[in-house]
Write a structure and sequence with these properties.
The chain is an alpha/beta fold. The chain contains 9 helices and 6 strands. Strands 2-1-3-4-5-6 form a 6-stranded parallel beta sheet.
Amino acid sequence: MLIGGTTLTRAGMRSVLAEYEAEIVAAASSIEPLIEQLGVVDVVILLDDQALPLLLQQTNDQPAILLISQELPHPMPQQRAWGVVSTDAYPQEIWASLQALQLGLCVLSPSILAQIHSPPQPEPLDNQLSEREHEVLQLLAEGLTNRQIAQRLIISEHTVKFHVSALLGKLDVSSRTEAIRVGAQRGLIIW
């Protein structure tokens, strides 16, 4: 079963699969007209991710899913065989993926797998803290109270409380002690 894409891309995929004598029982630009037929197919090939959410809601019949995409789907399918093959995959890669899915395996193209092994890195924490927040964290680690920090930095005690609150949020902690521990672990405090 082919779902999504344009008439031309569905025709192209039919042509690719015809080389391997694969049977396409149905094809459409969206999943709605094909929902009744999900129970008679082993694998659904999605030419885009538009139909994925609705397909994942179908709980009675769970054919394997092969998504032709450049990115991992969100959410990823669970409790069924599934795969993501790059849009620039060779016909034999698509055919091998379909065979693996019919055996109950999961399949990922190398370019897709690389997205799992190297997810986007969050901005380093020291770049997220302002210079003043660094100073406040250092003084917290030295054991100073809000009043003492205010006197040392020549700012109001209210401003110190604001900086401490911002620090707790950025460090994702709920206490000054945790902030010091996390700051020390990440090398933000000089001892």
